[in-house]
Amino acid sequence: MVFESRMAVGLAALESEWKEFFTSLGEKPFRATQAFHRLHRKFAASWGECLEFPLPLRQKLSEICPLDDLNILHSNTTEEGTEKVVFEARPDPRGRPRRLESVWIVSGERRTICISSQVGCSLNCRFCATATLPFQGNLSAAEILAQVYSLIRHRKELPTNIVFMGMGEPFYNYDAVLRAADFLHHPQGLGLGARHITISTAGVIPGIERFITEKRPYNLAISLNVPLEENRSALMDINERYGLKDLLQIAVRYTKELKRKITFEYIMMPDYNMDSRSLQALIRIARQLPCRINLIPLNTDFEGFRPPTDEEALKFQVALRQAGILAFNRGNPGKKINGACGMLALKMV
Ligand code: SAH
What we know:
By secondary structure, the chain is α/β, with parallel strands linked by helices. The protein folds into 2 domains: about 1-65, DNA polymerase, domain 1, CATH 1.10.150.530; about 70-335, TIM Barrel (Alpha-Beta Barrel), CATH 3.20.20. It contains 12 helices and 10 strands. It has helices at about 5-15, 15-25, 30-40, 55-65, 140-155, 175-185, 205-215, 230-235, 240, 245-255, 275-285, 310-320, and strands at about 70-75, 85-90, 100-105, 110-115, 160-165, 195-200, 220-225, 260-270, 290-295, 325-330. It has a 10-stranded mixed sheet with strand order 1-2-3-4-5-6-7-8-9-10. Helix 2 crosses helix 3, helix 5 packs across helix 6 (about 175-185) and helix 7 packs parallel to helix 10 (about 245-255). The two termini are about 35 Å apart. Bound molecules: S-adenosyl-L-homocysteine.
């Protein structure tokens, strides 16, 4: 109830669920609309902030469904204004602390919040630091939203974009992730355009299928990373479950049925995926469907891995461009504060 209360309020606007809840408390249904506004538009951290409610109602709500928020445990900011925050959520049933990270990324006019969908991650991608943490399960939709709302209050500004690219695999927590996205998109809430919200998956095919069937309006990104089947399996366990061939097939279906470009993320790892065979394989893939490729220079320094030099990165990007493929180098904002892609492992420096 603690974290779900914020959700129930949101659903009221769509399904009158929360109206029923307020009615069941002996309150008028318009209280649901007021609550939605306070929680999802004004980002209230407690019922105490619902000043239009009489005090007894505020007290009652605080008792029966307290809006427990995420606490900021640690934060670190770069000179450019990119900030990584470590949040403390309520402990797991065994009493172990649950910690997660979000990153506020400043890039030109964009202010993007990168949020987590799980505590740790159940995948085991060899290059990703999150994989080194214990996996502690899914975040609730309310906890996913609380990352955004808490950062808005902390920064005193609004984000222009949200990306589900923090800890965890969003499509292993499909319901909560999509619920949270719906709230962020809701016109009575933050009201972000659907194309300003991106969900990234390492390739969970059933999740992509559901996303297509439900005609979800959000951007979809696939962490392709390695374009050759056997090499991909060596670095990303998930490829053994959902192979590249099927993954590409569903990606093509996405672009056809939803008539949208897909984004492929591609970590540049010179020892694994920047040779000419990989380059040609990537070009072959990209020519099959409308897509853009976001190149990410490797951020971690695990044994056996090295990031590309600037020349290597540029050469790879130019080769893709010359093949007629949209390819961008996303750089690594937040690297100095352990807040760039693949670095979210609760380091507090
Ligand atoms: N599990 C989802 C959501 C996480 S997104 C997914 O994989 O898409 C995190 C992004 O960071 C992914 O695109 C991933 O490929 C990338 N990444 C992981 N480790 C990285 C590293 N060490 N350096 C750069 N990017 C990395």
